[in-house]
Design brief:
mainly alpha
Length: about 300
Amino acid sequence: RLVQIKSAFPKEVQLKQRVPKKKTVKRKNKKEEEETSRILYLAKFDEGVGANLDPNGNSGKWLPMEEHLKIDPSGAKERLQKAVRCVSLHETLSSGEFIKIAARWEELMRIVNNELLTGKILLESLMPGKDTSLTAQEAKYILESEKLIIFVSGLTEYVRVVRSIVATIGDLLCLDTSVNLTKRNFKKDWGGIPLLESALNVEDSFQVIQSVAEKISKKGAMMVSLESIPEIRKRILQQLMNGSRMNISPLTTPDLFCHLTLQPIGSTDGDLSLSSDSTRNDTRVSVEWEGKPFMACAANFWCNRVSLSVP
């Protein structure tokens, strides 16, 4: 009987009866959303660097951001952008896709350390007067080979990946961009993170490789240009500031950062692109691997030394 009554209504009336009317929710406009995000960054960052008052009412390490903006707009803008980067990384690392990134970094550091140790032993065996199993003719052939330069360049790119990861950790810790990773400040500034101890070992081996490569090179300089950790962080921060990106979306949008190092690597409008003097041979450029963006050096290292599966 009920079916007969329902079928008597026109179809469009029946459809309206079946689908409940959706409630309309007033959405915040873009300006309101950006202001909400900005307030979140200020609060989180002030809390992280100790700018808020402690329980006894004493002021923190730095001025609260709102006061900083009044007396030093330029410095406050840089500090605000550091806050944006820090909070963005926290949100990214909390997502399901990147929940295991620390394990990937540990594996990467272990393999890079092994590769550099092997490279160091090989290069030291080519030093004049070194007692090795190589004959003089074999050593001469290796020293004059273009493949030696390619080999050393490859090791340098491994270090670039490691430094990019360390730079990301520096951003996550909200360290000053001038802070480098050294044995002296390992615990004080970097919190003694075990992963960074592996990075220090990488730097030690690389320093030896640089020294030996300069001594044995028969074809001029072997080493390619390599940014320091502070230089990486300053470049990225400056590019973010130039782009006036004061909301979280550019750094959490998946196509704007490397999915291994979490370093910003480019955008369609060029705000996060490399400097104008970069070339197509620059290994920091973005490449796509199974639909995900990576720094070319990071993708190359992972697929050749770790796994053919995308990290």
